[in-house]
């Protein structure tokens, strides 16, 4: 798909702690920002250990990184769509989706498509400027990890993960829309 | 009307609790202005020029009397005793206190109402025909579909942060009374070979770049409504522009890709999800329909009630005027739909007081099975009134100021709040409406003019729908002063057209005079039964232009 023009937007931070599957845990992954200097990175120069690469870098190094699959993740910027990763997402232990601003909602579609269309079951991590108040929506779209950059303590964020105990429409967390769950006696 | 069950109550209740927490965090300084903004907007809360404004969702315009009474009480307890019906069939409070809003929302939840997604870059309240279920030209009642769309779009996790706001309208009749072709998605219910389905229009809109929507699907099977909507909004969410808010609506994307390519992408996406759980089951459709049953109409002898009505009309000219302008044919013999006008001269169009809201509730209970509908031209419809009760209703409506017999005429204007309330305005709109109402107050003249929509917006955001007014007035800023541009020839009917600008703009004082000249041309040039729009379409802009801009000799 052609993409809307890409600006030199903000890059995701990579905080030391994050929320994973409902618990606060240490972040075990490095993250390589999207940068023009990335052209100089080679598979050999990439230090060992868990690392999240920008999509284009991963695409270039993928073949050379054979054997290191369990420590290579990919992050998609908001103008990169799920189909650019497609079924090969399933070979990855981690996919991160970037929210350059909280108002940029493209990542919600990306996450759902990775889960629902491309069968991705690994860690799906939201990175960037999303807000506490978006956690329910993020979770419903399939994210299970949240590298929150904002000012609030992660422990408080856990409360917002389940602002809603029920929902109207189908999503990753509940594949049946409400009309298939109600008793439709009328 | 749709009634909440335990699930709806839980979801809406949790939303109120969530917003209460957000408001507390904002007031405690834990949420920045910027972060609070989309949260409050998605709960209908704007910060206006003078005070916050709270927009309450009225799903497809439908209200029951208990809700009307609650709205009256809220306007009394938390506001200045009045409220405003909007052009999206919603209702606004203009003076609530920010810290009271969570309490207002929980009062609304008690009567199965909310302010969810009445603003913000998300899917807004779905609008429809105020005569749904009663119109003679109806193909199918649009309300069950509107309700299914309401539920699908409410807190949709994927579509809460779209590039821009997103509006859907559904029309179920031959005539388009929902202006579907100036919506992001317009759904027209159709019947083919005995099967119900939809024509789907995409990319219409008003605002600063008015566009008439394109037909992208000529027949969508009934059960595929939600998956198709999901495909459209998903394509838009992924590809709509986010770098410039004036180019972010779906209409710009449809133009940029071209309707064929846009349609191809939607179809491609839809092919992947049409067999998903979003497919409406026969049970779900029957369930949605069950909330809009046929009211318990009496078997009336229409010949008798109509004859009696004619006698009443013959002996009372004022009643007969009202009957002619403010009532609408009903598919059930012996019944009529009635429009209560919120537009007597001197009252901002769409404004109602707390006692008037209660009066509407009483009238609805007494005359129309306890329900009322808000119209997109800011009036109120009582849809199911017995013909033999019309005289009583008229007398009661008169007492409360709702019987101005001007529906569909020049003085039944659509008018946005404008510079008196809205911080985005270039110019005031309410005083312009009032000046026009004062100048053209002769009913015989108004009736002679016939159907004529005059729409006023205070800026190019076009909340007053000036692009689709037969006559449109737009507030513009000319070197810091308020001026008004006049446009002619718009229509939001099934023959949608966008108005064209007459020429240079006018001062506020000049506007009534300019309208007068435009009407003179129409009266001079019209043939037989031509309405204003017909004459305009035949003779074009030029004769109007010449008269209005003629140099004084
Ligand atoms: S048209 Fe402009 S002035 Fe009028 S309500 Fe909308 S934004 Fe405000």
TrEMBL record, chain A:
InterPro entries: UCP030820. This is Uncharacterized conserved protein, DUF934 family.
UniProtKB/TrEMBL annotation, chain B:
Pfam families: NIR_SIR, NIR_SIR_ferr. Keywords: 4Fe-4S, Heme, Iron, Iron-sulfur, Metal-binding, Oxidoreductase. InterPro entries: NIR_SIR_4Fe-4S (IPR051329), NiRdtase/SiRdtase_haem-b_fer (IPR005117), Nit/Sulf_reduc_fer-like_dom_sf (IPR036136), NO2/SO3_Rdtase_4Fe4S_dom (IPR006067), NO2/SO3_Rdtase_4Fe4S_sf (IPR045854). Residues 53-111, 346-399 form the Nitrite/Sulfite reductase ferredoxin-like domain. GO terms for molecular function: 4 iron, 4 sulfur cluster binding; heme binding; metal ion binding; oxidoreductase activity. Residues 119-272, 412-548 form the Nitrite/sulphite reductase 4Fe-4S domain. This is Sulfite reductase (NADPH) hemoprotein beta-component. It comes from Microbulbifer yueqingensis. The lineage of its organism: Bacteria, Pseudomonadati, Pseudomonadota, Gammaproteobacteria, Cellvibrionales.
